[in-house]
Amino acid sequence: MTSARDAILASLAATRPAFAPRTQRFEIPPMPADPVGVLRARVEAAGGRLDVVPPDDWVSRIEWPVELAAGTGPTDGPSIHSALPAVASRGSGRLAPGDAPFTALDLCVLRGEFAVVENGAVWHVPRHPLERRAALLAEHLVVVIEGDALVANLHRAYERIDLGALAFGWFLCGPSKTADIEQALVLGAHGPRSMRLVWLTDAATRATIEAAALPESKTSPTPATPRQVS
Predict the structure, then answer these.
(1) Given pLDDT bands bounded at 50, 70 and 90, which one contains residue 24?
(2) Which residue has better confidence, 124 or 94?
(3) CB of 136 closer than 8 Å to CB of 101
(4) What is the DSSP letter of 141?
(5) What is the architecture, at CATH level 2, of domain 29-66+77-218?
(6) Helix (H) or strand (E) segment spanning residue 170
(7) Cα-flanking dihedrals φ and ψ of residue 125, to 5°?
(8) Which range in 103-107, 200-204, 217-221 is most confidently predicted, on average pLDDT?
(9) CB distance 42 to 119 below 8 Å
(10) Residue-wise over 171-200: b if at least 16 C-beta within 10 A, else e?
């Protein structure tokens, strides 16, 4: 006599679907034909801005969101937290380790590891605990990358990241964003009001990256930019 349990198991075995074929590995897309143009479009779609400048005297070549004061007093000029000495030497009122007034922080400047062309994100590993906090609480955020620090997509990005060796790391993309019920995108409500990506590179390095790109006909389309409210 067949038990109810045996009948249920037999029914399950009889209706077992066939095994699906093994998923095939796909080819990771290479760098798009115009990496700088695609990266710029992605950064701007996220509410940010891209500057591509030579590394020599780059501090004076870009338009800063706040004026870098010449003074050195603790209250003279904007409050700046910078991971790059070239900027810290031009700023004033910058925060030293242990300082607390993050609510008055005007500008945070970080050194990124590399940028992802497909989405405009920058991989950043904080070199000091203050960097993590300052990146969220500053009015304006500037992230600097150097040389050939561009990858085509997130597949290539994770090939460069050793997660086992990191305590913390994050992708930064554009200023703070908050979406409301009216489908408007509010920038700066819970973090930086602006974000600028600065790529320090020379013509030879840029030409090398573009030489490994796709034909123009295969470049991915530019995403639509959401309505933004600053």
Answers:
(1) confident
(2) 124
(3) no
(4) E
(5) 3-Layer(aba) Sandwich (3.40)
(6) strand 170-172
(7) -115, 110
(8) 200-204
(9) yes
(10) bbbbbbbeeeeeeebebbeebbbbbbbbbb
> Has residue 177 got a pLDDT over 70?
yes
Residue 162: left if φ>0, alpha if ψ -120 to 50, beta else—which one? Answer: beta
pLDDT single digits (tens) 54-108:
988 888 888 888 876 543 434 445 677 777 776 654 443 444 445 555 557 888 8
Provide the 8-state DSSP code for 16: P
- The single-letter code of the amino acid at 205 is T
Q: d(Cα 125, Cα 113) in Å, to the nearest integer?
A: 7
Going by C-alpha positions, the residue among 79, 147, 81, 85 that lies closest to residue 113 is 147
Cβ neighbors of 209 (< 8 A, separation 6 or more) are 31, 35, 148, 150
Nearest-angstrom CA–CA distance, 171 and 143: 11
Half-sphere exposure of 84 (CA within 13 A, CB side): 20
Torsion of CA 150, 154, 159, 160, to 10 degrees: 40
Look over the chain and give the mean of its residue pLDDT values, rounded to a whole number. 80
Distances (CA, A) of 229 to 47, 58, 115, 186, 192: 10, 30, 25, 5, 14
Whole-number Å distance between alpha carbons of 213 and 153: 12
Comparing 195 with 203, the larger pLDDT belongs to: 195
Domain ranges of the chain: 29-66+77-218
Q: Whole-angstrom Cα distance, residue 137 to residue 142?
A: 13
90 or 201, higher pLDDT: 201
